[in-house]
Design a protein that fits this description.
The chain is of the alpha+beta class. The protein has 24 helices and 17 strands.
Length: 608
């Protein structure tokens, strides 16, 4: 077997309680690497028509061959399943230490199927998985669950990945939360776990990074990558980027550019957005900056609110989440945002989808579609807190309406145009009228609106690896495809996407080759990434998605931006034509000839 792999995956039937341990198929590893790629292949082979919340759906917790090694930023885990929010295949990643510990415990992945007849959690240690009773923790928040399981199993060398009440109640955007606040946030992974009566996964393992197949080559490749990280203006601790201000360094930058969706995307700039920025946080409420396993960047910024109604301690304050519950909802109170972030983490709910559900409701209220107790006013933090609680527990009224996601809620209100979503998943913190690459990126993302499938703002806002005019549409198809393919590979290794601010495909190839002993080139990196991206699109095609789903909310296509990108709209049709030609797709569908070209084995007819 190749280096870096534990060569062990646990297949766990929650219905029967049976656990089967299987080696990693080397052919599958060479084709799809691990992490995202291998997880998607498992989900595809399980069939693209399963009900996401049925026992037949599978939930894959996957590491890659780089996870838990001495490669920088290698503490990642992918959670892969069919999304109950979108119906697409979805993968959601988190940092912290659980990914590395799963590898150190002797696993490349855990695959759950079926449904337990009572709440359970999986305890993982020394190459074995045990299903234990989680009844005492059912109904409890993530924070209390993590504390209780650490008390039971000892906190040393231990990671806990848990769901909260939102997952138990099958809120379609519930998430799995690792170590209190590092979430596999998007796509409803927590709802899938809840549907299986799976409360948590506990991993206990001391640090023991896998040895690289070629130690000398590894030392050289890792040193070169580290030097690039230290030299990048974005990742260097000395240059004022992620290390100094965290991901929220983007708030002021995006606001000034006029690419910040404000009040449900009604405008692209908010004068007081600075009050929620990374710079403001650092000066006023910063309490600490812990880091994930193997990461020299330390982008996480924890805050503390010592008094008042929004007291909170040790809560991470991230850009996307701060935007979603902040200016997206007309809210510029950083203290209330920090409190709501902590609340979402405890309830186990995606902060982006939650913020979009609230902002959609606020605009619906503004239009008179929600009245009385169900109405929400822009920036009303106390009402936002009450609504978040109601959604997680599916309380009658607004809670029940929003629990299936803002796209479905807007449909029920007779105003689908109020949901800023693609394929049922809401947008993150970039207005596609102000960043054209994101317009195409949202539309063609295989998991619904997403910036992480292909992060074009790297070029359009930060000039990495090359500068690109954010308001121009020409050339964005090639830019996006490059990022999509690169990220598909890095998500399968599995390393943090922030490494791409400094490292290149050549760096990925060198480190991967040294760890595994399989010599690949930068061209191989991009080819494998292309294969994985097409594999996901193939799954979605089988599930019924076509080019008609590669679109944007009408607002971005028809309503010119007001604010910093004055007069701009998303030029989607022009970019889509260019993109499909580059991909070799026919109206958003992967043809059989493309599957053959990329070496993608078709799904068996029974599964399709």
């Amino acid at each position: 077997m190749l280096g870096g792999y534990a060569n062990r995956i646990a297949w766990i039937d929650l219905t029967s309680g049976e656990i089967e341990y299987k080696p990693v198929d080397e052919g599958l590893a060479r084709t799809y690497i691990g992490g995202r790629g291998m997880g998607v292949r498992f989900v595809l082979d399980n069939g693209p028509h399963v009900d996401p919340l049925s026992p037949e759906n599978i939930l894959c917790l996957m590491t890659g061959p780089i996870t838990g090694t001495l490669v920088n930023m290698s503490g990642r885990m992918a959670v892969v399943t069919r999304s109950p929010l979108t119906g697409t295949v979805t993968d959601s990643h988190h940092g912290g230490w659980s990914g590395a510990r799963l590898k150190w415990a002797g696993f490349d992945g855990l695959v759950f199927r079926g449904r337990a007849d009572h709440p359970v959690y999986a305890y993982v240690e020394e190459g074995r998985v045990e299903l234990l009773d989680a009844s005492p923790y059912w109904g409890k928040g993530v924070h209390e669950t993590v504390a209780a399981l650490k008390e039971r199993h000892g906190s040393e060398d231990l990671s806990v990945l848990a769901i909260g009440p939102a997952g138990e109640n099958r809120v379609r955007f519930a998430c799995m939360v690792n170590e209190d606040q590092r979430a596999a946030g998007r796509g409803g992974t927590g709802a899938v776990a809840g549907s299986k009566n799976l409360k948590a996964v506990v991993v206990k393992a001391p640090k023991r990074p896998p040895k690289p197949a070629d130690p000398e080559a590894f030392l050289a490749a890792r040193s070169e990558a580290l030097a690039k990280i230290a030299g990048s203006p974005i990742t260097s601790p000395r240059k004022g980027g992620l290390s100094v201000y965290g991901t929220n360094v983007l708030m002021n930058m995006t606001n000034v550019a006029g690419a910040l969706p404000v009040r449900n995307g009604q405008t692209t700039t908010m004068p007081t957005a600075e009050l929620t920025s990374g710079e403001w946080v650092r000066e006023h409420i910063l309490a600490g900056d812990p880091t994930c396993y193997g990461c020299p960047v330390a982008c996480k910024k924890e805050v503390e609110i010592k008094e008042g109604p929004f007291k909170v301690r040790g809560q991470s304050f991230e850009y996307e989440s701060a935007w979603a519950l902040g200016v997206n909802c007309g809210n510029d109170d950083a203290e209330s945002i920090a409190y709501m972030l902590a609340l979402c983490n405890d309830l186990g709910m995606d902060t982006l989808e939650t913020g979009n559900a609230l902002s959609m409701s606020m605009e619906a209220s503004e239009r008179g579609l929600l009245r009385g107790e169900m109405a929400l006013a822009w920036g009303d933090a106390e009402a936002m807190v009450r609504t978040i609680e109601a959604v997680a527990r599916r309380r009658e009224g607004l809670g029940e309406l929003l629990a299936d996601g803002p796209a479905r809620a807007a449909e029920r209100l007779g105003a689908p145009e109020l949901s800023m979503s693609v394929k049922g998943q809401s947008i993150p913190a970039y207005d596609p009228r102000g960043i054209q690459g994101m317009a195409l990126g949202y539309a063609t993302s295989n998991r619904g609106a997403c910036h992480l499938r292909g992060y074009t703002p790297a070029a359009e806002l930060l000039g990495i690896p090359v500068e690109s005019d954010r308001l121009a549409w020409r050339g964005k198809a090639e830019l996006l495809k490059t990022f999509q393919d690169l990220h598909a590979f890095s998500d399968s290794m599995d390393v943090c996407k922030f490494s791409a601010f400094a490292e290149s495909a050549e760096n990925y190839a060198a480190q991967f080759s040294a760890v595994t002993g399989w010599k690949i080139t930068a061209e191989d990196v991009m080819r494998i990434g292309e294969r994985i991206y097409n594999l996901e699109r193939y799954y979605n095609n089988l599930a019924g998605f076509t080019g008609r789903d590669d679109t944007l909310p009408r607002r971005f296509l028809e309503e010119p931006a007001a604010g910093g990108s004055e007069g701009s709209v998303a030029h989607l049709d022009e970019m889509l034509a260019e993109y499909y030609a580059l991909r070799g797709w026919q109206d958003g569908v992967v043809p059989e000839s493309k599957l053959q070209e990329l070496g993608i084995e078709p799904v068996q007819s029974g599964a399709a």
